[in-house]
Structures
1.
Amino acid sequence: MYDFDTSNLFAYLDTMLRLVGGALKLDPVAFQAVFDYRGEPTWLLFWIVFGAGLSLMVGQSVVLFANQVTPVRFLVSLILGALTFVLNVVVVVLVVWAMANLLGERSWALGQIARAIALASGPYWLAFLILIPYLGLILERALKIYVFLALLVALITVFNITFWGALGGGLVALILAQAINTLLGRLLTPLTARLTETLVGAVEISSTREIYEMFARRNQIVD
C-alpha cells in the first residue's frame, strides 16, 4: 500500500501523497513503512515536510497581505517560512533521537527516526485552511493537536511503547525542541531579521492573532 515508487515524477507524487494520506489517517502502517524502508527516501520526506511548512505559511499569509507585501516578496517569504519549518522539524528529530539513544536499551538509527517524525508533520498539509475567516485560530489549534497525535502514533509505532509512554516522551521532546528553537531563534534573530527585511520588507503585523484582534477592534468600533 505504501510502496516507494520514485521511477518518474507521477509515481513520485503518488508515493508522497499516499504517505501524507497515511499520516492524515494516523495509520501506523504508513509510519512503519517509512521506518522499515531500506532505501534512501530522504528527499521524499524532505518534500513532505517542506509541503507541510509551505501550507502552514499559506494559511498564515494573511499577515503578508495585511502588510501589503509584493508578489515576489510574498513568494520568497513563503519559501523562507517553509524552510524554517523544516529546520524546526530537524530539531525535533534530533531531540527524539538523542532521547531514544540515551534512555533506550538499543541504538537507534537517526535516518529511520527522522523519516517517522518527518511524516508526522503530514497533517500540516491542511494548514492552508487557516485562511478560512473566523475559523482560522480554531483550525490552527486543532492542527497542532492533530500533528501531536501523528507524532504519538509515530513514537508508538517506531519504539513499540505504550500510549502513555509516547505521550510523556513526546511532550518532553517537544518542550526541549521548543527551548532549543527559541535559543537558536534568539541567536539568529539579527541575521534572520535582516535577511527577511531585505527579501520581504519590513513587517509591521507579525501574526494572524494580531490580524484577528485588529478586525475585532474595528468591528467593535463599527457596532
2.
Amino acid sequence: MRTNHQAFTLIELLTVIAIVMIIFGYAIPSFADLIGKSKVDANVSRLAQVIQLSRSVAITNNTKVTMCPINEKLSCSSNWSNGYMSFVDSNGNRKFEAGEELLFQHFSQEPKSKVSWRAFGHRRSLQWLGTGITNHQNGSFELCYADKQKLYRAIFITKTGRIRYSKDNNNDGYHENSKGALITC
C-alpha cells in the first residue's frame, strides 16, 4: 500500500517567501505613514480641545485663562514641544502660581513631534479674557512630525479666540498656513 505525501518543494517555498517580502516591502512604509498621520491627528485634536477648554472656562468664569508651554516644575517655559498647560490666571501675570487652578497639563512623550506658537503680542503664552477673546493676540500653532512635511498641520487662532484648522487648499498633499505658504517647523 502506497501513501502520498503532500509537501512544498523548496522552489515553491522560496517563491512564497519572496512574494511575502515584496508585499511587506510596500506595506511597511505605508503603515509607518499611517501611524505618523494618526499621531499628528491626535496631537492636533488634543491641542484644539485644550484651546477650546481654556476659552470656555474664561467665558464661564469671567476670568483670565493662560495657556503656555510647560516644564517639569509646572511653570511656563519657552518650548511648546515639551508639553503645555492651561490654568486660571487670577492675577493675569501669565505665571502659574499657588492658588491658581490648573485646567490641563500635557507632557510630550513623542520626540519626533514639534509644536510651535507663532503670534502677535506676547509670544510665549496665549491668554483669554473673560469675554472669550484673546488678550490682543492672534497666531498659529504649528505641529510637525518626523520632518515629514506631508504631516505638518496648523491651528489658527483669531483675536476673537476662535480656531480654524489648516487645509490642503491646492490638493498637493501639503497643508498651508494662513498666508497660503507651506507650513514650516
